[in-house]
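Suppose you are handed only these lines of text.
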Amino acid sequence: MVPVVVLDDPDDALPLADALIAGGLCCAEVTLRTPAGQLAVAAMARRSELLLGVGTVLDPEQVDRSVADGAAFVVSPGFDDAVVERCQELGVPVLPGTVTATEIQRARRAGLGVVKFFPAETSGGLPALQALAAPFHGMRFVPTGGIGPANVGSYLRCPAVLAVGGSWMVPRDLVREHRWDEITRLSARAVQTVAECRAESVPAQVAAVAS
Ligand code: 3PG
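From them, the structure of the protein bound to 3-phosphoglyceric acid can be written out as follows.
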């Protein structure tokens, strides 16, 4: 489960990291959509409990700066050869956005086994993801965009989905208003959804192995 963070004030980075950790999340993506984003990467990466990634990465220079600031993975909205190559040179996992078979094929050609599926809901949602996954055996997807409590479970149950991202755990207004307890509550609920989906999938996997 990957909360997608958009910060307006870099001073909110550490309390936000603590709120996510308190909710049981162990991963987050800080986007570079705001000027505060880059500073927030450096601040949140100090919390060793979080696997901290950087999102909205559009060029190799942002890769360099974010990795130097402690980012453990890189996310971009689309597929960009220069960004992917720079991440591979640095040995940092990269999730380029893909939404067509052509883009997934390019990612595969670049040696990637995981891609972001973005924007998920407006690109056909889970049925589109499943149709695209079918010809690319072994490729895993991280859908983001338009996902929330109502539909996250259906994505998580899809075997081609490695993780799900979204901003619903960290609404921008709650961050601005410093409502950390509410963010912790939303995070804990998301973590609980993952646990419920896992509990469902284990008996199904055991039955599949036994049959
Ligand atoms: C992203 O940046 O990955 C998505 O825009 C998050 O989308 P959401 O705000 O619809 O969850």
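What can we learn from it? Strands lie at 2-5, 27-31, 51-55, 73-76, 94-98, 114-117, 140-143, 165-166. The chain has a mean pLDDT of 96.
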